[in-house]
Amino acid sequence: MATAASLSTPASRIFSLSSLSLRLRGLTSAAHSLSRSTTTSKKKKQQQQKQKHRVAVKEKRRTRSDREFDINRYGDSAFHIPVLLGEVIDVFPPSKPLRRFVDCTVGAAGHSSAIIEGHPEMQVYVGLDVDPVALDKARARINSALNDPSSTLKAYTFLENFRYIKSLLTDVDETLLDTGIDGILMDLGMSSMQVNDPQRGFSVLANGPLDMRMDPQASLKAEDILNSWPETEVGRILRDYGEESNWYSLQNKIVKARLQGGLHSTGELVDLIKSATPLSREGRQGWIKTATRVFQALRIAVNDELKTLEDSLYSCFDCLAPGGRLAVISFHSLEDRIVKQTFLDIINIKGGDGDAYMIEERERKQDLRKIRIDIDKDEMWVKQMLQGLRGTILTKRPITPSEEEEKLNTRCRSAKLRVIQKV
Q: What is the pLDDT of residue 351?
């Protein structure tokens, strides 16, 4: 018969089994952790490969400028480099008469002064801008460009929005709308002096008031939108104008901030964005990209940029003379989409009836053949065109900065140049 002592399990064996069980659990846990880590690593590699593929496809679709960028020729100074200046000069080359020219966004007059100097035959120049500081600098640049005593050029500058281009041209000369304008330029980007001034409220890296007005005389500020506009409208602005995926969280944070006195500086807004940015958006680049989209959304809303742009594109095209060109430089997808769709809409507008339409169509084809011959012979920058009833899009795909220009001026990376010519 077995005794009680012989039936009992030794304590050392119990501890040994318990220790083995713990070790097995630890190994299982480590295996699971390793598996999760491997899965996460695979997902990251897949995401990186997809991102590289997207970048490669995007780069393949780009029509990069093949013009050699010369900082001494195309850069005004270390603080101001006109974007795509060489390409804009190609659009309005010295070989083609440019007697009447309008710069809708004169800024520091980098583009304007170069075009004036390249066209001594120019008779009328009109420069527009809503920023009084920029316009004062532009006037000085334009006056220095008018150094030819034999020049008959008359230059006019207006502190006005380009949406009023038709009425402004009528004020200059009632016959301008009849004869038409040979060239119109719109550069939709902000100048460095605007971004670098903290008091304007455009920079995410410098603390200043929540202003963001392009026209300092306008009444609406970014602060007004953030602190008093309806919650749903704030969310819509972030979603539609900033194309920000985290818009709902940001909307809620902004509304909560109102209960604590509201937002009154760009620094406070940036801190709010940092607190609302998910940790998965790694490091500084995560919040700064979100902040850039939020600031863009507010700036567009404050200045009603998209509606103004769409309306003005039609007005500018109407002001062109036959053979005249409208060149637009955009800096984000919302602007570029509007320019692209408006140009397509312009060239596909059809009207007339019966025989009159057929006559117009025959004349149109004849005009387009002439345009095509001129472009093929003299203007190598034109790669693909879209021809329509009222005009020809000379840039089926937009022209983007060369790699050399991007390296010297990182702010130009998103710039896109589209050009349309009136028949």
A: 40
Query: Has domain 71-187+307-422 been given CATH number 3.40.50.150?
Result: yes
Please state, in angstroms and as integers, the Cα–Cα distance from residue 22 to each residue in 11, 354, 407, following that order. Answer: 17, 91, 58
Q: Which pLDDT tens digit goes with each residue over 354-374?
A: 344 443 454 455 454 455 545
d(CA 208, CA 215): 17
Q: CA geometry: angle at 127 spanning 125 and 128, to 5°?
A: 150
User: In CATH, what number does 201-303 get?
Assistant: 1.10.150.170
Residue with tokens 């964005």: 273
Q: Tell me the DSSP string of 337-365.
A: HHHHHHHHHHHT-----HHHHHHHHHHHH
**In this prediction, what percent of the chain has a pLDDT beyond 70?**
73
Residue 347 Cα distances to 325, 356, 393, angstroms:
13, 18, 8
DSSP 410: G
User: What are the domain boundaries of the chain?
Assistant: 71-187+307-422, 201-303
Residue of 394, 397, 413, 415 lying closest to 96 (CA atoms) = 394
54/48 Cα distance (integer angstroms) = 10
Angstrom distance (rounded) from CA 324 to CA 332: 26
Predicted TM-score (pTM) of the model is 0.79
Q: For the chain, how big is the Rg over CA atoms in Å? A: 30
